[in-house]
Amino acid sequence: MTRTAGEFVGSWRAALRVARRSTVRHRGRSILIFMMLFLPAYAATVLVMSWANLSGTSAQELSFRMGQADLIVDDGDAARTSLPSASRSVPLTQGRTVVAGPAGLAALEYEATDLENPINRGRYVLRAGRAPQGAAEVAVTHTLARELDVRPGDEVVAGMPQRSLTVVGVVDWSRSLRQAGLLVSAEAPLSGARAKLLVKLPAGQSWSPPQPGGLESGGFSYTYREGPTAAEKAVEAAAILLVTTFAGAQVVLLAGAAFVVGARRQRRDLAMIAAVGGTGRQVRRIVLASGLLLGTAAAIAGAGAGLLTFTLAGPLIEAIADHPLIDVSIPFPSIAGVAAVTTTVGALAALLPARTAGHGPVRADLGGQRTRSRLDLAALVAGMILLVAGTGVLVLAGNPEGRAELLALGAVTQLLGVVACTPALVRLTGRVAAALPMPGRLALRHGARHRLRTAAAVAAVTAATAGSVSLAIVGTARSHAPATQHPTRPGQIRLEA
Amino acid sequence: MSAAVLRFAGVSRAYGSGEQTVHALAEVSFEVAAGELVAVMGPSGSGKSTLLALAGGLDAPTSGAVFMEDVELGALDAAALARLRRDRVGYVFQDYNLVTDLTAAENVALPRELAGVGTRAARREAIAALAEVGLADMAGRFPDQLSGGQQQRIAIARALVGQRRLVLADEPTGALDSRTSLAVLEVLRARIDAGAAGVLVTHEPRYAGWADRTIFLRDGRLVDATGPRQTPEQLLGRTA
């Protein structure tokens, strides 16, 4: 091992040792920082799991509505002849019926299909009993079972003409667990509603609707399975960027303030390490190691606790999401991403205190003397530039045709500008302290003297306020948006002026 | 006596500017050879600690030059100065000498680990250094589990572990009782006699007697110096 590599390894080893011991010794502060990092990691893991397994993605939404089908078409000769020869399909009839049970009557939706056909996988979840077969059996959703007070083995009357049906199972519909409905076999629908086909195309083949001129036996409607559009993906990416950056910045600023306090209390130790031969970089690593250590611990604990919560709280999560958990999968890249972001946030929170510690005057720090820091003009100028640039981007992109990722970029740039400007502004406020009464004077001077941690806290509060106000404005705008759909009676059309 | 390990050549250090300039050191020149312990005495504010900081590269002279074995410290960048302290210079301060989150052995091994020596090898060196100061059985204790005298002896062990050539001690007995102070000075003297060079800043003439010679500072100027091997009684007579 070369001398430089040996110094690198040796200094990290020593840094991690000091960080580990310091973390244990100062438990209160360590737990505070750990929780700041753990809670977002925990919440993000639960959200990522829910996102991947419930309604978060367009693909999942499609599975709830289409099962494994690539296509839903009205059943008929025109549709059937347009399908590739090796296509598989299962009929589906959706309609409304009146059902009478022990607890009374209810008008509700029903579906007639073959529950056990693989194409239907994802559309339903069997809670109890079995799938209905033949014309005399029915399955009910758990909401309807509760409303009618029926369970497998009971009888209900439904359909036109009315017929007696034996409840053989409880089956929820994936698209909404609150739905009250009936499920009967494909060959025995409860009304004359037009049947559809759920179609699974042969592997590797696509389907194109026939041209109107080529339809000899009448037209049909269809729903094709399509992924999100580029615009939807862009909005989703911008939302993730915005949320991750703002949440990450909050944690970095708040945890950073705690790290500043820690580094300040540790400064004689750090100065001692510098005096016995630690380079500025090696001293920085000791503070940085604390961030990495706590970030890594919080990432592992947060991801683990999130996965555990998701596993144990399945029914509750299903109830909140209104969708069932089917074929639960762990999105390892996303979970790894959450862990990586948490660790990075921990390291970033320690970065500025680490830089300050690495540049500290050893003599003054050894003697426990306060050192006067310079007004960081470069940071102020950079912050002002970022603020102007971020505002400019927001002004340009802030219109109905604006691109979502540009809006996110502008907001993040503004946030960075605020963070960069705040230390200098906090310091400037110290100059007006003399004009204030004693309590205000003390508070302002204390804040200015400890400007790094004050600035971190102020920037965190500013970012949180800005985020909350933005959300409130968006929410208010949506709630006041005029209705864009007006009901029309059958046979009427409405023309826009 | 061998060639100079530490050399001050017309070193001045001033703080501030204009009318508020404070001259902490002015035109100070002296040398310390291998195997020699030089005591630095003087009233508070005379520049003793500044001299020690300049000798270890923790501060830079306003004018003049400090040489460590013919290497001018002013020509080195911060990282090179840190390496020089780590490899060749050992510091002992009046108090707060040890890193609180490291055990005695880890404190002594710290400069070696920072230099890239493996953990086990560094620990072996540290245990050997602790044995020299009679504290090998305290290797696993943390600073807050040790007395002041034990902490100072461990600091001396750290100051001399590896190939350190120069020990800079700033009032190492300042916070200790007489008996413990003597034990610390015995250890320091033994290591100097083994070939290191040393600078001992002290207020106490009786402790300066452990040095080979003493230099006196007043208002930043070197105002007097004893010859080699002065007895404590002689020193007491000169400073009375």
TrEMBL record, chain A:
GO terms for molecular function: transmembrane transporter activity. It is found in: Cell membrane. It is a multi-pass membrane protein. InterPro entries: ABC3_permease_C (IPR003838), Macrolide_Exporter_MacB (IPR050250). Residues 250-358 form the ABC3 transporter permease C-terminal domain. The chain crosses the membrane at residues 30-52, 238-263, 286-310, 330-354, 375-397, 409-434, 455-477. The keyword Glycoprotein does not apply. Keywords: Cell membrane, Membrane, Transmembrane, Transmembrane helix. It comes from the Bacteria. It holds the Pfam family FtsX. One of its GO terms (cellular component) is plasma membrane. PANTHER family: ABC TRANSPORTER PERMEASE YTRF (PTHR30572:SF4), MEMBRANE COMPONENT OF TRANSPORTER-RELATED (PTHR30572). Belongs to the ABC-4 integral membrane protein family. This is ABC3 transporter permease C-terminal domain-containing protein.
UniProtKB/TrEMBL annotation, chain B:
CDD domains: ABC_MJ0796_LolCDE_FtsE. SUPFAM superfamilies: P-loop containing nucleoside triphosphate hydrolases. Residues 6-239 form the ABC transporter domain. One of its GO terms (molecular function) is ATP binding. One of its GO terms (cellular component) is membrane protein complex. It comes from the Bacteria. Keywords: ATP-binding, Nucleotide-binding, Transport. This is Macrolide ABC transporter ATP-binding protein. It comes from Micromonospora sonchi.
